[in-house]
Amino acid sequence: MVKLRLKRCGRKQRAIYRIVAIDVRSRREGRDLRKVGFYDPIKNQIYLNVPAILYFLEKGAQPTGTVHDISKKVGVFTELRLNQQTKFN
Q1: Degrees, nearest 5: CA angle 30-35-40
Q2: Which of 1, 20, 85, 87 is 20 to 30 A from 41 (CA-CA)?
Q3: Which residues 6+ apart lie within 8 Å of 26 measured at CB?
Q4: Spatial distance between the Cα atoms of 42 and 13, rounded to a whole number of angstroms
Q5: Are 17 and 44 a contacting pair, CB within 8 Å?
Q6: What DSSP state is assigned to residue 85?
Q7: How far apart are alpha carbons 33 and 46 in whole angstroms?
Q8: How many CB atoms lie within 10 A of CB 81?
Q9: Overall pTM surpassing 0.70 (yes/no)
Q10: What percent of the chain has pLDDT over 90?
Q11: Axis crossing angle, helix 76-88 with helix 50-58, rounded to the nearest 10
Q12: Is 70 within 8 Å of 6 (Cβ atoms)?
């Protein structure tokens, strides 16, 4: 199973996080399948590769709680619903 998860980067006391698609059995800093964005909580910057995130969500990837909140703030799930509605119509 694949999850969309945060991967810690940066130095001490200045953490930034990459948002990655990674196998559930891998550890936090393990080998990821693909980098799909980053999040800097100190500067409150978010960058997401929305088409890549939508691809993994459509394939059944599960976001962690924090990644879900970040994606919801940007509006990824509204695009996911729109894509699903256009496929069925």
Answers
A1: 95
A2: 1
A3: 32
A4: 10
A5: no
A6: H
A7: 20
A8: 10
A9: yes
A10: 61
A11: 60
A12: no
